[in-house]
Design goal:
By secondary structure, the chain is of the alpha+beta class. It contains four helices and five strands, in the order αββαβαββα. The mean pLDDT is 97.
Length: 138
């Protein structure tokens, strides 16, 4: 699937977002190294702390099925299920990505539309990131 198709899929996924408190809907499409697709949306909770971001929803779905190799993620967001500008992943989501992705090669695509998007590496969005390699005994 090319980036335009992935962005269309992410935009379509906004309809599954559960955001009754903020009305800020987020959808993500995660692509594994094998080309499998995992989708995610944000899921809010009245207690706020249990809220889960779209990116982590997609990652946790894949990880819970044994997937460990990831290529890229597409993220779209906006109020009332309409994409508005580009929205970068929060710090917690970036940290989850750092746990399971190569920061030099994993791509994060922030999209406004299928024709308007920017692509970053995880390393660009999380410079000097702390990951599993930092805990290896050396």
């Amino acid at each position: 699937m090319d980036n335009k198709e992935l962005i269309r899929k992410a935009i379509d996924g906004l309809k599954y977002s559960y955001a009754p408190y903020s009305n800020f809907n987020v959808s993500a499409v995660l692509v594994t190294k094998d080309g499998e697709i995992y989708t995610g949306c944000n899921i809010e909770n009245a207690g706020y702390t249990p809220t889960n971001c779209a990116e982590r929803t997609a990652f946790f779905k894949a990880i819970s099925e044994g997937v460990r190799g990831f290529e890229k993620i597409v993220i779209v967001a906006g109020k009332n299920r309409k994409v508005e500008g580009m929205t970068a992943p929060c710090g917690v989501c970036r940290q989850v990505m750092m746990e399971f992705c190569d920061p030099k090669t994993f791509k994060i695509i922030l999209a406004e539309s299928e024709d308007t998007y920017k692509e970053f590496t995880l390393e660009e969005l999380l410079p000097l990131g702390f990951g599993p390699g930092d805990l290896l005994e050396g």
